[in-house]
Design a protein that fits this description.
Layout: E1 5-11, H1 23-26, H2 29-41, H3 47-59, E2 64-67, H4 77-87, E3 97-99, H5 116-121, E4 131-134, E5 139-143, H6 161-172, E6 179-183, H7 204-212, E7 217-222, E8 229-234, E9 239-244, E10 259-265, E11 268-274
Parallel strand pairs: 1-2, 2-3, 5-6, 6-7, 7-9
Antiparallel strand pairs: 1-10, 4-5, 8-9, 10-11
Length: 276
């Protein structure tokens, strides 16, 4: 990894899918999710698309891989197992991969022993309140876990107070000129649409205000909304690049790209949409 520059590949919302095998798994929000998948989504996610994405990423040169949530569709153990097996070629070096969960990865309430995201991908987030990685001498990465089971009509999330506190503590421990990449599943703005309270952070205004007072955070990577965008959020003291990689495995004529390649060099940020 170069000490002066680095390349990040940002994927999101892969939605590896399976149908519930046990009847008790149907008596939950999964019934609605499985029906929606069968009627509306499955045709946009052909199986060969996953293989193509993994091969494209495998052949690209990159320093760090980010997946910003929704590895699965219904948070079934079979889906997590399928995702882990398929992504294995990209996960060989744990230090070069950061994965945060999305709402579909915590789709229904489970007991602690059934935290399948943590069982299959927990090593790519860690056991602490936040995920952290030193990317190079100039840049560090921080990942948030803001997903939790919600009622059938909601896909919202929440950034916990202790998450913000842990983030501040980590940033204060670094050199004053360190820049940060923040990864979270949920968007902080909606540049091409109206806000949808059922699909956003419940404490969105608090998080927006918090970010407006953290000029050292220069790049925010997310997914959740299946529309690609890259825009620059202007605050009084600084600007924040916001990148949504939508759903990297989805076939959609309206999508402008499948994922993003991001090049960081000291204070410069270059975002390149990638299609395949």
């Amino acid at each position: 990894m170069s000490t002066d520059s680095l390349t990040i590949l940002h994927l999101s919302d892969l939605h590896f899918s399976a149908y519930p095998k046990n009847w008790n798994q149907w008596f939950s929000k999964r019934l609605l999710g499985a029906t929606n998948w069968w009627l509306n989504r499955s045709s946009k996610y052909p199986s060969q698309r996953y293989l193509q994405l993994i091969e494209v990423v495998r052949q690209m040169g990159w320093d760090h891989l980010v997946i910003s949530g929704d590895l699965t569709q219904l948070a079934l153990p079979e889906e997590f197992a399928k995702a882990r097996m398929a992504l294995r070629p990209l996960l060989q070096n744990q230090e070069r991969v950061s994965i945060v969960p999305g709402n579909h990865d915590y789709y229904v309430s489970e007991n602690e022993e059934s935290d399948y995201f943590r069982s299959y991908f927990g090593s790519f987030f860690g056991k602490n309140e936040i995920h952290t990685r030193r990317l190079n001498q100039n840049w560090h990465l921080i990942g948030w876990h803001s997903a939790a089971p919600t009622p059938w009509y909601s896909a919202s999330g929440c950034v916990r107070r202790q998450t913000l506190k842990a983030t501040d503590e980590y940033m204060q421990q670094q050199a004053t000129d360190t820049r940060f990449v923040l990864v979270n599943h949920y968007p902080i703005s909606f540049p091409d649409r109206e806000h949808d309270t059922k699909h956003e952070l419940l404490n969105l205004e608090q998080v927006q205000y918090w970010l407006s007072r953290r000029p050292q955070i220069r790049l925010y990577l997310h997914g959740h909304i299946h529309h690609n965008w890259h825009h620059v959020q202007q605050y009084a003291s600084h600007s924040l690049h916001v990148v949504n990689s939508a759903s990297s495995t989805m076939i959609d004529e309206k999508s402008t790209s499948s994922f993003h390649r991001i090049r960081l060099r000291k204070d410069q940020i270059q975002v390149e949409p990638i299609s395949f």
